[in-house]
C-alpha cells in the first residue's frame, strides 16, 4: 500500500523528479564497477516510511567488500552505501516520530536501490531512522549508522543484554568486580561505539589497537588497551593476567584470525592457571560468548585445556533490526536520548574530496588500510562536481527499473560548454583541484569518472 506523502525540499523549491546517485554493478574485469546516474528516482512512500534528503554519507568496509566479493550487487546497477545524515523531506501518513525538516541519521538496509545511502534522496522506514541532536553536525551524524547500530544489535540482540540496562545515567566509575568484555579492534568504527556502550553498561573493557589510537580509545572508556602489533601469545598472556583469565564476552571486529584469538581467551586455560597458581572461580563453567563480526574462528577450541565452552554467536540484522520496528524504534530512542545527553559521541571523521565521485577512492583507501583507526571517511554530497551534470545521452540502466542512468557525454559537453572545456574528465579534475584525485578511466562508449 502506498500513500501520497507530503514532499518538500527546502520549503519553496520544488524537489527534482530525479536525483544523483552512485551506482555499482558487476562489470568486466578492468572496468570500474561504479558510475554516476543523474536520473535516479524512488518509489512512492509507504505510510510508515520517510524520504530523506542526504547531505553527508559515510563509507563502510561493507561497501567495498560487497563490490569486491560480489555480494549485495549483481549485473544490474544498484545504489550502495549504508550510512548517511540529512533531513526529512517527505513523511508517510502513519509516521508519528518525524516531521518535515527534522534532522536525521540512518543505517540503511541497502537491499534495494531506493534505500542505498550513496544518493541525494532515499526512502527509509521511520522506525529505522535516528534523530540528530542540535549539537551534532550532519558530518558527525553520518558516522553513527552502521557502527552504532551494529554495536547495538550485537549487545542487545546477539548477546541478549537487556536494552533497559543501557541507562546512560552518567555513571563513570565501574564496579570493582564488573565483568570483562574484550573488544578486538577497538579503533575500528564498530569498536568506537561498542566501547562507549559497554562502558555505559558497566563492563570493564579490554581492547587491542595501534599505539597511535590508545589515548583516544581510553578516552572512550576502555580500561586496558593493548598494542595490536604485539605477538599474539604475548597478547593472550596480557589479557589473562589483567582479567585473571576471566573474560566471558568478546566481540571481534577484525577477522577470522583474531576471532580465533578471542575464542582462545574465552575458553580460559588450565595450563596458564596452574602456572600462574591461580584459583578457579565457582561459576567458571558458564560458557564464554563470542560475536565474530568479520569472520568466524578458524580452528575449534582445544577442549583438553579449556576451562569453559565458547558459544560463537552470529549477528543478524534481518531477524532483529530491519523489519522489526519494536526493537529498532526502542534502540534508536535509547540512542537518541544518549546522543542528546552527550553520553555517546560520534566517531572522528575525515572528508573525502569530490562528494559522490570521491567514494570509490575513499573505499580503496579503506580497503588498503590507508585510513587511521577511529576515523570515519565521509563525503559531502554538495561536493559532487556539478559540471558533470551536463549530458545529452540517456540510456536505460538495469537499475531495478527505477529510472534512467545518465552518463557523461563528451560530445554534449563540447556542444554546451565549448571546446576549451570539452573533456569532462579534466573538468572534474579541475573542479576538485588541489585534492588527491586519480585519473579517471574510460569505459565503453561513455566516460566513467573515477576519483
Ligand atoms: N557482520 C556484520 O554485520 C558487520 C557489521 C559491521 C562491521 N562488520 C565488519 O567488521 C569489520 C570492522 O568494521 P569497522 O567499520 O569497525 O572497520 P574499520 O573502522 O574500517 O576498522 C579499521 C580498524 O581496524 C583496526 N584493526 C585492523 N586490524 C586489526 C588487528 N589485527 N587488531 C586490532 N585492530 C585491527 C585498525 O585499527 P588501528 O588503526 O588501531 O590499527 C583499523 O584502523 C569489517 O570487516 C566489517 O565489514 C561486520
TrEMBL record:
Residues 389-451 are annotated as: Disordered. InterPro entries: ADH-like_C, ADH-like_N, ER, GroES-like_sf, NAD(P)-bd_dom_sf, Trans-enoyl_RdTase-like. It holds the Pfam family ADH_zinc_N. Residues 392-417 have a biased composition (Basic and acidic residues). SUPFAM superfamilies: GroES-like (SSF50129), NAD(P)-binding Rossmann-fold domains (SSF51735). GO terms for molecular function: oxidoreductase activity, acting on NAD(P)H. Residues 30-379 form the Enoyl reductase (ER) domain. It comes from the Eukaryota. This is Enoyl reductase (ER) domain-containing protein.
